[in-house]
Amino acid sequence: MKELKRNIAIVCGGDSSEHDVSMRSAQGLYSFFDKERYNVYIVDVKDQDWHVTLENDETIKIDKNDFSFVRDGKAVVFDYAYITIHGTPGENGIMQGYFDLLHVPYSTSGVLVEAMTFDKYVLNNYLKGFGVNVADSILLRRDDTVDEEAIAARIGMPCFVKPAADGSSFGVSKVKNADQLAPALRVAFMESNEVMVEQFMDGTEISIGVYKTRDKSVVFPATEVVTNNEFFDYDAKYNGQVQEITPARIAPETAKAVAEETSRIYDILHCNGIIRIDYIITKDADGNDKINMLEVNTTPGMTPTSFIPQQVRAAGLDIAQVLTDIVENQFN
Questions:
Q1: Among 101, 114, 115, which residue's Cα sits nearest to residue 67?
Q2: Region 271-296 average pLDDT
Q3: Distance CA 259, CA 267 (A)
Q4: Cα–Cα dist 322/332, whole Å
């Protein structure tokens, strides 16, 4: 008897500024999945409108009571959710809590890890307790009184102002003097109720992916990020204003240390599925490379040109098999 295929939902969209980026990741994932093994559907989630889009562009409403839909008079119930929402509700634990209630396995880490990694300030201070190097930062809330000169004295200039809980470079500014803090904060508060003012680190920016199953631990080659923009902003990420070099041009011993640190952070957080960690490699007083973590991304971009697919190719791996590893790890 022929084995039944699992029904996979690629859950995308979301309610943040990154909705369209998420839709592009969903298309990438759809092209990567092994269709001989799985029935794959794209599920677009935006506010209360949840629907599946079929191959003929027909859309059918999702029943949120059991995360299913009806096609040709028959209910299609999903066996697994591959979450590729960048931002809320897929990257901050909300969607994970929903799937936990329904006992539907999913591709990301659990509720607590997602909530923590979504809040950069909380994550940095948590990982600092495990010896992870992070930039000094200050957390500001919307109604706080702001002393620009005190911030400049503590953090130094230039610095970054960024939403504490948001995704893809929206609301981020590089600030070069105290006079620029107030307008940068206004921009950041449009994206989040909490904002970080973070120390600037001058060095080589890299990004590296990792996933683990019961049987294997796979750290991909790192990608070096080179841009002529002030920083790796939205245009650099999504509009091609960047040079991405995989593997990164860093010393072999530094590459090994980055891979080890990435694997360690994955284990500290007890992650699931593919995550991507961004770092800045700076120099210490003796001229040695110092690895500084910038952020952990638990739903990394998955378009064909995104970092993770690039790194999978550079590692000589098949991305369809990588996705199969991640899905089947929930069932074995």
A1: 101
A2: 96
A3: 13
A4: 15
Q: How far apart are CA 91 and CA 85, in angstroms?
A: 6
Answer for the pair 80, 105: CB distance below 8 angstroms, yes or no. Answer: yes
The pLDDT value recorded for residue 230 is: 59
CA dihedral sign of residues 171, 113, 90, 86: positive
Number of H helices and E strands in the chain, helices first, is: 10, 17
Average pLDDT for residues 124-131, to the nearest whole number? 97
For residue 18, which phi and psi values (nearest 5 degrees)? -95, 15
State how far the alpha carbon of 145 is from the alpha carbons of 139, 148, 150, 151, in Å.
12, 10, 11, 11
Cβ atoms < 10 Å from Cβ of 299: 31
> Is pLDDT above 60 for 23?
yes
Cis peptide before 247 (omega within 30 of 0): yes
**Pick from 48, 40, 33: nearest CA to 11:** 40
Q: Could you tell me which residues are beta bridge partners of residue 211?
A: 218
H-helix or E-strand containing 38?
Answer: strand 38-46
Q: Integer distance in angstroms from the first to the last C-alpha of the chain?
A: 20
| pLDDT tens digits, 141-177 | 988 988 889 999 999 999 999 998 865 567 899 999 8
Please tell me the pTM assigned to this model.
0.91
CA–CA separation, 309 and 304 (whole Å): 6
Higher pLDDT, 21 or 237: 21
Residue identified by tokens 């550079």 is 314
Hunting for tokens 């999903």 — which residue is that? 78
Of the chain, the percentage scoring pLDDT greater than 90 comes to: 81
In this structure, is the dihedral angle defined by the CA atoms of residues 262, 263, 266 and 269, taken in order, positive or negative?
A: negative
Contact 152, 178 (CB under 8 A): yes
Average pLDDT of the residues in 216-224: 97
Structure tokens that stand for 292 in this block = 């500084």
Predicted confidence at residue 1, as pLDDT, reads 37
**What single-letter DSSP state applies at residue 214?**
S
